[in-house]
Design brief:
The protein has 41 helices and 2 strands. It is mainly alpha-helical and 740 residues long. Among the domains are: 195 residues, Lysozyme (Orthogonal Bundle); 122 residues, Alpha Horseshoe (Serine Threonine Protein Phosphatase 5, Tetratricopeptide repeat), CATH 1.25.40; 74 residues. The longest helix is centred in the last third of the chain and has 21 residues.
Length: 740
């Protein structure tokens, strides 16, 4: 069950991708020249292994694995030296990696000697070695030798996923091999390619359409394929087919269509819930109520039933019915009772029963004091008191969140404001303790950055972060995927991401309800092939796990470097660094903003029409291009997009005297909006200003960008990382530092 606040955050980012309104009216401030005291240095990013690094079961003794992050040309000599050395596991790795590089560079003939008899010593990748050898023969113009190798692979390893490559190659001359590939490895990308080829020859093949629906969720054209199945073949589909179609719709965000398909799928509590939820998201509210009601009757004790009852209370226009639904949750689902009580209080308030509403809220505080609903109630009280100028009462409510709701999403914010309100009460020592508490217990939060900055750490604040040029030391080793075969894990460590991803499509047999290990592995596989949006989402959404055993697995994963590397990767490093230097911007701030805007997806387009890594609006791109004399550009090209976006980020900084709070807010909402907020609210305290931002999207955007910035800083800057390790055992374990 996904927590509501977290789901709302994802929808705000994923659905709209923080759509950038760069086309908004610009403020009347004059563009001025900018001179920074501290020039950007070219050696911002250093690639070396951090001392004492802790990651997901990595082999720290290997001389080959550190070369994975080095370019093909730069590592060639070292690999050849290792590959020519004495027999060892590293020698096997070097031979395989060197051969793969040579094939990639069009030197397949030179690759063959390195692959000769390698499978005898490198059993973990034996089928892959035959595959590479066949590739090399094909590229070298020796089809007979290639065919013999494909046949050997098919004969000796008929059940290995890489054999789909052999069946694909052999099927070029004998279609029966393609039949075998689809029958044996329907999820392999080669089988998907076969299905697409056959459909191009004859588009009216139900079996091929179903292969794509069940296993081709990542295809750009998948929704049109699903629509064809529904509209042209609906009467021929079985319940299991409808389930596959529904899941594919759901995975691609077409929730209304998914709900309709789930209604025809096998009846499980999850399918029944998604029938209702899909109808609700598709704005078919009457259908949603009916589906939710049917779920409560068929699966009265399922976890999804509690959620359905709460959704029914939200949808119904009959307050008395809403109270019945919520009372059922309170009675039968104690772990959801606090949430239902909070909803009950809102219904009673709307019914003009403030006394009863107050009693319901008091019950939350007394009976479910540790719940998220109690934390939200306490925070509302703290905000009311602060607005009224009563710092003492606000401080008391916030302290209750810290002590009673330490695991709440609100706890980092509350702990930080305990410090802020303590300052207002003249208690600086207590304030410092609160800020240190945030660093200790919530080291990855936006409020950890605010706390570090307030305590005087050299991490930048809103007025100086632009000038910061933090050194970045990125660990070069790869985490080991916790799920998947030994071959998949080895290929991933060797940086053979596409081959690992292909194997994973076959091995990932539980995509609807994956284990923690499977979901994290799927995230790694997606990131490896550049599917950064979904990859980061798969990793980040692990925090939504609520079953005790799954939460324990997630907490263990969080204490490893590989988890955080996956959450905060560094794609497009060179153009980010280059354009940041030219625009005199902190490259880590640019990286943080890109992560929030697009999750590093160069071709993504928001619902508002913003395009690319920095989500530039077309009108704004034209205006920026005219300012910098850029004649020809492509907004989906990473270099062009970063050029345009960094110029505009420089512009928003210049508009507001290099205040990065205003600059980042302007990047999201437009300079005119920010100027209006300054006029309306004034500006004496940046934290108060953030709280007053009237656009929830922009407020969340500002906090997320600077949280990203802080996490890149704490993970990859040795000075900040070591200092934070003195406060936080969690952070120390993550990055491998031991507090002194």
């Amino acid at each position: 069950m996904l927590k509501q606040r977290k789901n709302q955050v994802f929808l705000a980012v994923g659905a709209g991708l923080a759509a950038l309104t760069m086309g908004a009216t610009f403020s009347a401030s004059r563009l001025s020249d900018l001179v920074l005291e501290q020039p950007l240095v070219k050696q911002w990013f250093v690639t070396e292994q951090a001392t004492g690094e802790l990651d997901l079961s990595q082999d720290t003794t290997s001389a080959v694995l550190p070369l994975v992050s080095v370019s093909v040309t730069e590592r060639a000599a070292q690999l050849e030296e290792i590959a020519s050395g004495s027999p060892s596991p590293d020698r096997n790795r070097a031979r395989y990696l060197l051969a793969s590089d040579l094939i990639q560079q069009g030197q397949a003939g030179s690759a063959l000697p390195w692959l000769e008899d390698l499978e005898q010593d490198y059993a973990a990748l034996a089928p892959q070695i035959l595959y590479k050898r066949a590739q090399a023969h094909t590229a070298s113009g020796n089809p007979a030798a290639a065919t013999a190798m494909w046949q050997q692979l098919w004969t000796e390893y008929p059940d290995d996923p890489v054999t789909a490559e052999a069946l694909f190659a052999l099927g070029q001359s004998d279609p029966q091999y393609w039949d075998q590939a689809i029958a044996k490895f329907p999820a392999h990308p080669r089988s998907i390619e076969i299905a697409k080829t056959r459909l191009s020859q004859d588009p009216n093949q139900l079996s091929m359409l179903l292969v794509l629906a069940k296993h081709g969720h990542y295809l750009p054209e998948i929704t049109s394929i699903l629509d064809r199945l529904v509209n042209e073949y609906g009467s021929q589909l079985q319940p299991e087919d409808w389930e596959a179609i529904a899941f594919a719709y759901w995975e691609n965000g077409y929730y209304g269509s998914a709900g309709s398909a789930y209604a025809k799928a096998p009846r499980t509590s999850l399918n029944a819930y998604r029938t209702g939820r899909g109808a609700q998201l598709g704005e078919r509210y009457s259908d949603a109520l009916k589906a939710y009601y049917q779920l409560t009757q068929e699966f009265p004790d399922a976890d999804e039933t509690a959620t359905a009852l709460i959704k029914m209370a939200e949808l119904t226009d009959k307050p008395q019915d809403a109270l019945i639904y919520l009372d059922t949750v309170i009675e039968r689902f104690p772990d959801r009772a606090a949430e239902a009580l909070a909803e009950r209080a809102d219904v009673l308030e709307a019914m003009q029963s403030p006394e009863s509403a107050s009693q319901a809220r008091q019950s939350i505080l007394t009976q479910y004091s540790n719940s998220e609903a109690a934390a939200e109630l306490r925070w509302k009280q703290a905000e009311r008191a602060a607005t009224a100028g009563d710092a003492r009462t606000a401080w008391e409510w916030a302290r209750q969140i810290v002590t009673e709701n330490g695991d709440s999403e609100l706890a980092p914010e509350a702990a930080y404001w305990v410090g802020k309100w303590a300052i207002q009460m003249g208690q600086q020592a207590e304030a410092n303790k609160a800020f240190e508490y945030v660093l200790t217990h919530y080291p990855g939060s936006y409020y950890a950055w605010r706390s570090a900055s307030t305590l005087g750490w050299d991490v930048g604040d809103f007025t100086t972060v632009r000038q910061q040029i933090p050194q970045v030391v990125k660990p070069i080793s790869q985490p080991v995927p916790p799920a998947g075969s030994a071959a998949l894990q080895e290929l991933y460590r060797l940086g053979q991401y596409r081959d690992a991803w292909s194997i994973w499509q076959v091995e990932f047999d539980n995509p609807v309800q994956p284990t923690v290990a499977q979901q994290f592995t799927d995230g790694l596989m997606r990131l490896g092939v550049g599917d950064n949006l979904d990859g980061i989402f798969m990793v980040s959404s692990l925090e939504w796990r609520e079953k005790p055993e799954e939460e324990l697995e997630y907490q263990a994963l969080k204490r490893q470097t590989g988890y955080w590397q996956a959450l905060y990767p560094f794609p497009f490093l060179e153009p980010i660094n280059s354009w940041s230097q030219q625009r005199q911007l902190n490259p880590m701030l640019v990286t943080a903003l890109i992560r929030q805007e697009s999750r590093f997806e160069p071709k993504i387009e928001s619902v508002a029409g913003a395009v690319g890594l920095m989500q530039v609006m077309p009108d704004t791109a034209d205006w920026v291009a005219s300012q910098i004399g850029l004649q020809d550009y492509t907004m989906s090209d990473p270099n062009d997009n970063i050029s345009l976006g960094t110029w505009y980020l420089d512009y928003t900084h210049r508009e507001y005297d290099n205040n990065s709070l205003f600059a980042v807010a302007s990047y999201n909402a437009g300079p005119g909006s920010v100027a209006d907020w300054i006029d309306r609210f004034g500006f004496s305290d940046p934290d108060v200003f953030v709280e007053q931002i009237p656009f929830p999207e922009t407020k969340g955007y500002v906090e997320s960008v600077f949280e990203n910035y802080w996490n890149y800083l704490r993970l990859y800057n040795p000075e900040v990382s070591q200092r934070l390790a003195q406060y936080s055992e969690e952070h120390a374990a993550t990055v491998g530092f031991l507090p002194e």
